[in-house]
Design brief:
This protein has about 750 residues and is an alpha/beta fold. It folds into 4 domains: about 290 residues, Alpha-Beta Barrel (TIM Barrel); about 210 residues, 3-Layer(aba) Sandwich (Rossmann fold); about 110 residues, Immunoglobulins (Immunoglobulin-like, Sandwich); about 70 residues, no CATH class. Helix content is about 30%, strand content about 20%. Helix 1 packs across helix 9 and helix 12 crosses helix 16. The chain is globular and about 95 Å long. The N and C termini lie far apart (about 75 Å). About 50% of the residues are buried. It binds beta-D-glucopyranose (BGC). Beta-D-glucopyranose (BGC) binds next to loops.
Length: about 750
């Protein structure tokens, strides 16, 4: 560590210096304070590659950046369901960051894909928080393994772009806890990211940059976050309020440091907040010093060649084979049949999204060249672009494409969303493929050749009814700079598809659970679907989908057998089972475990992903997979108790290849969460009777009190009608003459003591 980077103590700094430290020095750097020996550190975007802007870049940060390896954006990388691959990608990005003197890479983005329309869905992992958390944690571990910092973003509930700097996401606490916060929680508590970036939007009426519940109570208080909270670029509206809420570093600087100094002097802002945040900036500088030290002379250590190879491997694991009728794929590269490659994306790949994550790739592979290189006789390949990249209808292009298709036995049709269709900054308004591409597909289909569609899109597109005209669909998402060669590897079986859907593909946009509430209006977006995001809704309602969450085909087949569940502690289990590759090619299966609770106190999604593992198997090979489940795997957030709760009782473990392809099931019994008894006079008769202490107390007390009643009444549990069960105890005296408020108070006191009734 360099001397100048030893942590300074904030009380060696002046008030002005502390205020300056809590805001950037420029668009990408923290503030330098040379007179105090404090050097600036540089932050730069990711997360699927380094976006370091050259010196003197535009002030808005939207211009060009130094060439870097463009890995698959998280929509692709997440579909690999392979944390160790993601970790390797993270480490490669860190190597490039070190070479360019970047101390913090701004990622990963783990917001939940609430709607297929979300403009940044390509930058996010999943509709499922467990998967988003595991993939995000792997990315953080990879980057930080080399001492480079990360910025977990956008905290929190940044699931739309519409009005993103002002909109307030209105979300009930249970939904926040179960859907929108767990990915952040998992990453913070297991991977310790150096920084967390607050979102632009507000949550329940308070801007995230000023939200002390999020930034202080939950993030630091509950999850123990000890790093720095940075604003999203331009997210701060009130510096002092943000500082008090727990935001440490404003980026980029808004130039109002003096207001903090004045506020402290006027007694309006406690200097302790400035001390704490200045200290965290100094700690960030120290925590990332190792990477800057390694940087000296390391430019040559980065092998862009190796990183490109890693990008290609990552891309092959990111694509998802959705459909493959009659095992049409893989194609035989040695066959002498004529192949028509149609679609502009085959030659000009669409491989990343627009906005702050846009990387200038070190090179770009295209599928057309890779296909030509893969086959033994490139002369049998005819190419026709078929459509224009800017969506201008061109009849001549269609005619050429039809012509190419007529002479071919097999058509490889590259369709997708143009760059202008999805980007940071706006949401989509529909999920259709462009009309000119659908017209092309129809025209090509009429030519009679068998069609394989290869898709390039950062977010879900509607597949019906057009997919009926295809024999196979390979969902390529956005695959980064090596996507073109990865697609050729997959089409010709050099690699075996192993990606799985991280989001449900609905039949229609209208089916998506947030449809009626997205993107809100007048500054508010009400999360009316609550917990029921993605498959949690489709599966609970049993609604038909185009492709379910977790789905993805392989060129081989897998069987599941011999499930064995052992109890490893209170509300803890280990589920072991065997996965066998029953086909003739090496391949990988993603074994998924969903938990279903048949009867629950509060309504829950019918099943939720609680563990998964990707297993690589040679033909005929088997592996024993063990997935661990712990208390949280069975819990829901109880608003009443303000905490995680497991109901005592039965749960079903469902193990399989997608949320709709369950192969093994087992039942386990949980003891439930031990919680202090909370029976009050306002608790209902039903709640009293369901309680192990309250139930017997109430039954015994009622029996005794009613002995003297002129009317023969009994309050035996079995005879309690649904109507009586919903009656709060405090209201009973109004209905039963023999019962007084004194009786009720005595019961509440006895229940609080936990004393069971004595036999009379
Ligand atoms: C984006 C962030 C990004 C930052 C810096 C913002 O507009 O929301 O994801 O890291 O800019 O470029």
């Amino acid at each position: 560590m360099r001397d100048s980077e030893h942590t300074k103590c904030p009380d060696q700094l002046t008030l002005g210096q502390k205020a300056a430290l809590t805001s950037g020095g420029d668009f990408w750097r923290t503030q330098a304070i040379p007179e105090a020996g404090i050097a600036p550190v540089m932050l730069a975007d990711g997360p699927h590659g380094l976006r370091k802007q050259p010196e003197g870049g535009d002030a808005l940060g939207i211009g060009t950046s130094v060439p870097a390896t463009c890995f698959p954006p998280l929509v692709g990388l997440g579909s690999s369901w392979n944390p160790s691959l993601v970790e390797r990608v993270g480490a490669a990005i860190a190597r490039e960051a070190i070479a360019h003197g970047v101390s913090v890479v701004l990622g990963p983005g783990v917001n939940i894909k609430r709607s297929p329309l979300g403009g940044r869905n390509f930058e996010y992992v999943s509709e499922d928080p467990l998967l988003a958390g595991c993939i995000g944690a792997a990315w953080v571990n990879g980057v930080q393994s080399l001492g480079v910092g990360t910025s977990l973003k956008h905290f929190a509930v940044n699931s739309q772009e519409t009005d993103r700097l002002r909109v307030s996401a209105e979300v009930d606490e249970r939904t926040l806890r179960e859907i929108y916060l767990p990915a952040f929680e998992h990453i913070v508590t297991t991977a310790r990211p150096t920084t967390v970036m607050c979102a632009y939007n507000g949550v329940n009426g308070v801007l995230c940059s000023q939200n002390s519940w999020l930034l202080t109570d939950v993030l630091r208080g509950e999850w123990g976050f000890d790093g720095l909270v940075v604003s999203d670029w331009g997210a701060v509206s009130d510096r002092a309020a943000a500082l008090e809420a727990g935001l440490d570093l404003e980026m980029p600087p808004s130039g109002v440091d003096h207001t903090l100094v004045e506020a402290v002097r006027a007694g309006d802002l406690d200097e302790g907040y400035l001390d704490a945040s200045a200290r965290r900036v100094l700690e960030l500088i120290e925590r990332t010093a190792g990477a800057r030290d390694t940087a000296t002379g390391t430019d040559t250590d980065v092998s862009l060649e190796e990183h490109h190879a890693l990008a290609r491997a990552a891309a092959t694991e990111s694509a998802v084979l959705l459909k493959n009728e009659g095992g049409l794929l893989p194609l035989d590269p040695r066959a002498d049949t004529a192949l028509a490659v149609i679609g502009a994306f085959a030659e000009t790949p669409r491989f990343q999204g627009g906005g702050s994550s846009h990387v200038v790739p070190s090179r770009v592979d295209n599928a057309l060249e890779a296909i030509r290189a893969a086959v033994s006789d490139p002369a049998r390949i005819r190419f026709a672009p078929g459509f224009t990249l800017d969506g201008v209808p061109d009849e001549q292009l269609v005619e050429q494409a039809v012509e190419a298709a007529r002479g071919a036995t097999q058509v490889l049709l590259f369709l997708g969303l143009p760059e202008s269709a999805e980007s940071e900054g706006f949401d989509r308004t529909d999920i259709f493929l462009p009309a000119d591409q659908l017209a092309l597909l129809n025209a090509v289909a009429e030519a009679g050749a068998s069609i394989v569609v290869v898709l390039s899109n950062g977010a879900t597109v509607q597949m019906n009814p057009w997919q009926d005209k295809t024999a196979a669909v390979l969902e390529g998402w956005l695959l980064g700079q090596a996507g073109g060669s990865a697609l050729a590897d997959l089409l010709f079986g050099i690699a075996n598809p192993s990606g799985r859907l991280t989001e449900t593909v609905p039949l229609r946009l209208e089916d998506s659970p947030s449809h009626l509430h997205f993107p809100g209006g007048d500054g508010h977006v009400h999360h009316g679907e609550g917990l029921f995001v993605g498959y949690r809704s489709y599966d609970t309602l049993g609604r038909a989908v185009a492709y379910p969450f977790g789905h993805g085909l392989s060129f081989t087949a897998f069987s599941y057998s011999d499930l064995d569940v052992t109890e490893t502690g209170p509300n803890r289990f280990a589920a072991s089972f065997t996965v066998t590759n029953t086909g003739s090619r090496a391949g990988a299966e993603v074994a998924q475990l969903y938990v279903h609770q048949p009867v629950s106190r509060l309504r829950r999604p019918v099943q939720e992903l609680k563990a998964f593992e990707k297993v690589f198997l040679e033909p005929g090979g088997s592996a024993r997979v063990t997935l661990g489940l712990h208390e949280r795997s069975f819990s829901y957030w109880s608003p009443r108790d303000g905490g995680w709760t497991v109901d005592p009782g039965e749960f079903e473990l469902r193990i399989g290849a997608s949320s709709r392809d369950v192969r093994l099931r087992a039942r386990v019994r949980c003891n439930g969460t031990a919680r202090p008894r909370r029976l009050t006079a306002e608790s209902t008769i039903g709640e009293w009777l369901a309680d192990p202490v309250g139930g017997p107390l109430l039954t015994a007390a009622m029996a005794a009190d009613l002995d003297d009643s002129p009317v023969p009444v009994s309050l035996d549990a079995s005879e309690i009608s649904a109507m009586a069960a919903s009656l709060p105890l405090a209201r009973v005296p109004s209905f039963l003459a023999g019962v007084t408020h004194e009786h009720i108070s005595a019961l509440v006191a006895a229940a609080a003591d936990g004393t069971l009734p004595q036999p009379r």
